[in-house]
Design brief:
- The structure is a homodimer of 431-residue chains.
- Chain A is α/β, with parallel strands linked by helices and 431 residues long.
- Chain A is built from 12 helices and 25 strands.
- In chain A, strands 5-2-1-9-21 form a 5-stranded parallel beta sheet, covered by helices on one side.
- In chain A, strand 15 and strand 16 form a beta hairpin.
- Chain A is globular and about 70 Å long.
- Chain A starts with 16 loop residues before the first strand and ends in a 15-residue tail after the last helix.
- Chains A and B meet through strand 4, strand 5, helix 5 and helix 12 of A and strand 4, strand 5, helix 5 and helix 12 of B.
Chain lengths: 431, 431
């Protein structure tokens, strides 16, 4: 069957067409804010659902089901008119013709919003890219979960000590929120869950969890207090935190550090950096460090008519943020909100407003009942920080039933010291 | 890394070793019943979880998450001794040496329980096997869900009417409980969910659901009343039920019937029969129709010392069941129970009891708030049959949290006319 067509199947409209590429925090916020009385809106994403990235690590650790932290786009826009969802990938843009290429056909636009986000950055090391495990989508988080469980199942029938070590030891590269939260959750699993699942093995002695950070502090984007506290929490949980350590290679069996030292392991989780997900045809002159697209404070890529960038892929230098804003959900949501409202202002003949980032603080959780929170003028940590973390994330998840299922899972995990979702499921046609 | 070893890593024991192959209804019941003070028990399954097969169709229809209807074996046996779970597949048995081959190494046994169940039967048609969609595992159910959703996403951007028909029409082959329940759920989705998800398409007019049955009645294993009632329910829901119709071929685009008529469709769900999952080395002389292993009423394969078969793969002719028992959960559970108890009886020097099937009746649900129930002396249908169906299945699901999540999903689906799990998730490592 030929699915490659001249034109993607979207009705003609007299309204200007706004095409948003990417339904993450930025793109989805924009799609919900923009008035569909004044614009025909097309939302393109490679998945048919929005993903709640801050909880990927709990999917990987078998604490939550993927469906609890994703939400189908079509359900989100039930009963709403003039929005067209297309599940596909943009392969190229022709800026002069104002036209996108996708496997479903080409799609013209009046305004193009690039909200494709950022993907794992392997800094050009192809061997690491091939052999290590990233975690930038719910699919990758599930893959990671399956790999950890598969390796444990293999380890339990491996009599050789050294071989078993390779299967159970885990190296996490990158001491940002993702690396820290993963390390904490793994450490809790090592203490509370795995010894019950694998009574035949001496999990606590055999399993080592390494967290490797190139810089001299964890959570570099947060306060020094938070970084040091996170380090203490993790060390107390038995995680081997290696600061000032740079990973130079990984061949699938051995991690090599810059100083020549090595760790043998079959699993490296790579959370050491991100890079913008550009597609072909975007203006090279606007691409800056980290593959971000430079915009003015109205989110416009200057010099190209009708081209905008928001979220992780946008680089918008403000006086307070000369290196661009932190690539986090808050930035993306605020950018999507501002650009959506600006389109509505323009439709009414009003002038658009420049973006100004409202720093609401940042937080990270480390295992069971521990977290660190930086508010603009205040830092706290421990149990209440963890409660704050739970509440903020619970409110941010889309959908009442999702919120409810996540809450029940969290309560059940907290009471039972036990995640119940340790099942290796791979959708496939068998036999 | 070489995972193929001479011996699978299980401690030596002075107790006789009972190896159960397959953790479905029969194998799991047996593993839970047999006394591990008298036997060392090894449970081998290709998955690390037990699957609740009667609800696969709800996973396929995005009504339930797979994790709600599966349960990890290791969690089930937390804190229990002398049970060894190995996630692998048996490739061959050497009956003379009493030894199994698996990719994890070989495993000797004193008693071997074959509880491998049945898989989809394509009756030797390789083209149908290759092109149609089976649904005999939770992985296959998820794959089916993803395929249906993918095809709808493609259909929405396909302007050509004929091409779109192929993508949205669905043919189900086989009018047993699986086919009937799937057809009912799909019909409800066509009425209540898809028009809201795809307002751009005229779902009700465009989407045809065919249920094709070779015999002259649906639910052939149940009463005639139930079969006729199910047919009426499905027809009322808009399903095209074709009786006395035999599918002879499917090439991925067109279904061909014995009378030469055809239906164009990209999706055929094959639920037309099952065949026992034998492995190499089992005694050919004991293999009967449907690839089942013939046993005596003590579940022994006669003429082979220490070999037993229970569940869907067992053929145990009783006076009332000259063709063998129905291949359903009830039979499997009762066989596992009896054989487990017989082993305990033998350990205490008592005589084992012959198997006698206790027919508790059968039931099938057809869409929203409708079902048919056959009790041994009584038939009923409609809303109360549906409530009975819900209660029976809810109680049978393993795990309190699973029961709770299934119940909440069912209530939510019933109130909102809407399944919320329409997300296409494939665990994978992405580029």
């Amino acid at each position: 069957m030929n699915t490659r067509k001249t034109k993607i199947n979207i009705p003609k409209s007299e309204l200007p067409r706004v095409v948003i590429v990417g339904g993450g925090f930025a793109g989805l916020k924009m799609a919900r804010k923009i008035s569909r009385k004044h614009y025909q809106v097309v939302l393109i994403d490679r998945y048919n659902f929005h993903q709640f990235q801050p909880l990927f690590y709990q999917v990987a650790m078998a604490g939550l089901e993927p469906s609890s932290i994703v939400f189908p786009f079509r359900k989100l826009f039930h009963g709403e008119e003039n929005i067209y969802i297309r599940v596909t990938e943009v392969t190229e843009v022709d800026l002069a013709a104002k036209e996108l290429e996708t496997p479903l056909g080409c799609c013209d636009y009046d305004h193009l919003i690039v909200a494709t986000g950022a993907d794992t950055n392997f800094f050009g090391n192809e061997q690491i890219a091939k052999k290590s495990l990233p975690m930038k989508s719910v699919s990758e988080a599930l893959y990671l979960r399956n790999t950890i469980l598969d390796d444990y199942e293999n380890a339990v029938s491996t009599p050789d000590y050294e071989e078993r070590q390779e299967l159970v030891d885990i190296v996490i590269v990158g001491g940002g929120p993702t690396g820290v939260e993963l390390a904490g959750a793994l450490a809790e699993m090592r203490i509370h869950v795995l010894p019950k699942d694998y009574p035949e093995m001496n999990v606590k002695d055999e399993m080592d969890i390494y967290l490797i950070q190139a810089g001299d502090i964890l959570l570099a984007g947060m306060s020094e207090k938070s970084g040091r506290k996170a380090e203490k929490y993790l060390t107390d949980l038995g995680v081997k935190v290696l600061l000032n350590t740079r990973v130079t290679d990984y061949d699938g069996q051995v991690v090599t550090m810059a100083d020549g030292s090595t760790i043998p392991t079959s699993k490296v989780i790579w959370a050491a950096g991100v890079t913008g997900q550009l597609f072909k045809g975007l203006p090279q002159v606007a691409v800056v460090k980290g593959n971000r697209l430079k915009t003015n404070s109205f989110h416009q890529v200057e010099g190209v008519e009708g081209l905008y960038a928001i979220g992780d892929i946008a680089f918008l230098p403000e006086a307070k943020f000369p290196e661009g804003h932190p690539q986090v959900a808050q930035t993306a949501i605020q950018m999507g909100n501002n650009l959506g409202k600006n389109f509505n202002r323009m439709a009414k003949g009003q002038t658009p407003k420049p973006f100004s980032y409202n720093d609401k603080g940042s937080m990270a959780t480390i295992g069971r009942a521990k977290a660190v929170v930086d508010l603009p003028k205040f830092h706290f940590s421990g149990f209440f920080a963890w409660i704050a973390w739970l509440v903020v994330h619970l409110f941010a998840i889309l959908g009442a039933k999702n919120k409810f299922f996540v809450l029940v899972n969290w309560m059940s995990n907290y009471i039972n010291y036990n995640q119940s979702l340790r099942v290796i499921i791979k959708p496939k046609k068998e036999g």
